[in-house]
Amino acid sequence: MNKTFFADKQTLEDLNIPGRHKNNSIARIFDKVVTAGGRKLMDTMFQSPLTNADEINQRSGIFKYFTGKAFQFPFTESEFSVMENYLGLGSGSNKVTVGLGILSKKVMQAAAQDTQYEHLNKDICKTIDVLNRFHDFMGRFDDKGSPYSSQIAQIGHIYNNPKLKWLKQEQGVKVLPLFKLIRYDHLLRTGLHAEMKQLTGLIFQLDVYIAVAAVACAKGLSFALALPKDKNVLTVKGVFHPAIDHAVGNSIAFDREANVVFLTGANMAGKSTLMKSFGISIYLAHMGFPVAATFMEFSVKDGLYSSINVPDNLDLGYSHFYAEVLRVKKVAEEVAAEKDLVVIFDELFKGTNVKDAYDATLAITEAFSENRNCFFVISTHIIEVGETLRERCSNFRFTYLPTVMDGLVPQYTYRLTEGITTDRHGMMIIENEGILDIIRGN
């Protein structure tokens, strides 16, 4: 069994990936499924990204196939939940036992106006209706050799089972007589229990495929091409944050000869958003999900680590700086274990003085860069670090997000530019806000 792509809790929180109930989370963006089973399957996919290029491409190929279909899932949540709940109660009993149980419900209905028999009858009729409607829906798939053809064949095999010959004959049924009720209940929940379980699983998959494809179309997402690990390349063009409307896209590329992107720019220039956008694309690409980019191809990696919003820990007595140090140590241990990783560091060592931050950022960045099977995005305000690294290292791409002054007002392009920033507008912004005048009482 293949291992899954790893991202720890800190990384997932930095990128706001899990939690379909969280505002602007990535999971919430894709939470358009209808069925409870589809929702569980979606959660599993988010919890277990893939590290096998063929599996990733196979899944993304199915999603891409559905973007060209514009299918709507054929049931509402309430309609499907009746069948989902009914089949989930599989009796596991023989036909005689099932018959006696239903007969007792029939007697109780007549003797004490009990509603169990009526509810069972309605549930089976609704299940028959859903099964027939799904069969009709699958008749719209005539694409032989498509990425979804294997699932189409599996569904067709289930419906062609001789034990389901009666299904079409009962299309539109509202009430079943007692003996048919006993026969169909035993068949659906016992005799065909394995087939119905397989079928509902395939329906859950279809629910996810249709939902994710719809999101891809609505948000203008694309599908990444996964390459074997030993290719050791990563190119993403026009990457943007999927939760931001009208976001500006940027392009980033890595290979063994240029495995570090060194990013500078002012605080409001968009560095953190760019790094989060990039990290999200890495995670979604390993899921086989559509990514917020115009183009992406990547060699599969073992995992993703970020250090964007590292909190202090007052309970353990950790200062912000010490929490940063522990985070860097954790990543260093993973890199030293010869794992192929993508690492994102936003403003290393901002919890200490400028001299220490300069020395530490320089030493740590240079040491990490020697691990050519890992890709790093590292940002800093200390542009002097970049100048020193440019002299020492040949495997860096130096980039920055510019600040353009409109008179005394800073404007931000959010467009990644080659080089190291020369922007030094911090004091001008402070003066524009009149902070010194406020302090002096002017």
From TrEMBL:
GO MF terms, alphabetically ordered: ATP binding; ATP-dependent DNA damage sensor activity; mismatched DNA binding
SUPFAM superfamilies on file: DNA repair protein MutS, domain III, P-loop containing nucleoside triphosphate hydrolases
Residues of the DNA mismatch repair proteins mutS family domain: 258-441
BP-aspect Gene Ontology terms: mismatch repair
InterPro entries, per the entry: DNA_mismatch_repair_MutS_C, DNA_mismatch_repair_MutS_sf, MutS, P-loop_NTPase
Keyword DNA-binding attached: yes
Lineage, top ranks: Bacteria, Pseudomonadati, Bacteroidota, Sphingobacteriia, Sphingobacteriales
Any Pfam family: MutS_V
Protein name: DNA mismatch repair protein
Keyword ATP-binding among record annotations: yes
Keywords: ATP-binding, DNA-binding, Nucleotide-binding
